Structure prediction request, 693 residues.
Amino acid sequence: MNAPTDYLLQLADTALVLAQRNAEWCGHGPVLEEDLAMANISLDLIGQARYLYQYAAAGLGGDASEDRLAYFRDANEYRCLTLVELPNHGPRSGGAACAPDYATTIVRNFLHAALMALLWAELQHSSDTQLAAIAARSVKEARYHLRHCGDWLLRFGDGTAESHARAQAALDHLWPYTQEFWTPSPAELAACAHAGAPHPASLHAAWDNRVDAAIAAATLQRPPNCGFLCRGKFGQHSEHLSYLLAEMQVVARAHPDAVW
Amino acid sequence: MYTQAMDIPDPAQPAPATPDLADPAQLARFEAVLSGGGRIEAQDWMPAAYRKTLLRQISQHAHSEIVGMLPEGNWISRAPSLKRKAILIAKVQDEGGHGLYLYGAAETLGARRADLIDALLAGRAKYSSIFNYPTLGWADVGVIGWLVDGAAIMNQIPLCRCSYGPYARAMIRICKEESFHQRQGYEALLVMMRGTGAQRRMVQDAVDRWWWKCLAMFGPPDADSEHGAQSMRWGIKRMGNDELRQKFIDATVPQAQILGVTLPDPQLKWNDERGHYDHGPIDWEEFRSTLAGDGPCNRERIATRAEAHENGRWVREAALAHARKQQQRAQGAGT
Amino acid sequence: MSTPALKDWPLWEVFVRSKQGLEHKHCGSLHAADAAQALRLARDVYTRRQEGVSIWVVPSAAITASNPDDKAELFDPAADKIYRHPSFYDLPDDLGNM
Prediction:
């Protein structure tokens, strides 16, 4: 059986919103070579989002399209993980200005890619053949993203006192948001029951192993599992998503009948 | 993306007025390679003035690519479709890559990228003035692809035959990659021109703002160009400013007609006698003042590059520190 | 042992094999702090358009190059050894391919 549309949207929204965040570095990266590398990650994620939205739109029929789904849904209709919508810097209220921090970007991508490398690998065996095909191409990308961010995490942890402190601060800031990974949304339960998708909690131990090893190699400390349990997958987001979407959607919504 | 108006005299480093005192035999060998259409390679002997002119031109070219990421990058977050967002990221990314290849070519002449970037951020180096204008609407992205990249290609193709091997090779790679830049811009505009009235007005507005700036990009008339003649003789520059500008206009007018936009020059018309389009006068005063630092976005562009460079300092240092520790650990394990 | 302070990441030369069965070819350079990073960044800088299936990176400082001033004595002597080329030998047409 096929995965429910909400499940596809959860995956697509997460990929798109993270691409949007990562793309903020394009032209502003710490060094030219890395600027290109991060742009590649954004492009991979936009590609994943497009395949998923196109598939979801085909299932919805009518006037649904990848761009209708991306540009004409509000924050409370988005189903992305809260982790990916947070700004590229430490904790601030919505709209507060703050210089971007590469450690936040790298740690976020690392925590997320560690999840996606596992999830896409499992989804290759989904009974939803189209989703399985998307997973088969995405898993390679996720593994590369994990390697990219893992390499940086090691360099930050082992590098200078400043880079170590920044990486640890980013880890402390972002860690609580990973708890959302393991709490199933209704869409995930449905995908698990009917489309051969893994139960989120079943990925937890493997994720722990992978993440713990990288954190230890980087001589960083794993933060305790505590803090607020966010619910982006349920459509309850941080203050930041609405700003991100307002910017992303502004041209498309100003010209609702336009084709680009 | 970049164009001809490079090799702009740098007031801090005036070009040497007299040829350097070289070994006549070496100079003769150098001249023989150039006149035979050959290539000079990094380790070959070259006159100091040739090296200096090349270094200035290549680094200005590299800076232009890097600063050029900003005006288009300004629209990545707001691209109105996912397809256009991906295309734009890939294009801005390419420009970063082109800057990288060009810095690499400059490094073969003995410069260090870090020093070149310091010169840019300190305001000691020039870059193409076109990037000091703002991108005010989504159609600007398409128009930059069509006109600015179109103008750049006019200049870059002859540079693939530049006498300095590493520069020529970088240009070949760049031209290959750039071939999609102009096409994607033109195609985006075609789709908009077939769309709503508001979309068509956006395109025309962007064309009105960019057309004259693009003509100025080719640099002042050849008669005014201080370095032109020497650079032509050295094979660092292959075509004159006016010749390239004319070529660009002749190629662009029919494209504008197919697109359905009006180029904002009432004097633009076909001259049967010359076999070219005539055009109205270019405002060189505005070009010079923008180049001198008084364009609408000069300060914003440099300040933004400087901030990114400063924000990235700890990242670059972390990687170096880790590399050194790894090296020390390996040495420690070896003894 | 202390390493001298570096302002810049060191330079690496990048060689790419465009497809299986072909040799690695020099395609450019980049900056990276260490070899592993150089390899990863070379992938992002030089293979964005499926240009390669394998990458080598070499520290630019590790390359020993011939001196252009020696060009004449190194390479000119090969010019008159035309007997090294198959076209030097005149064979009857009815021999066919050899």
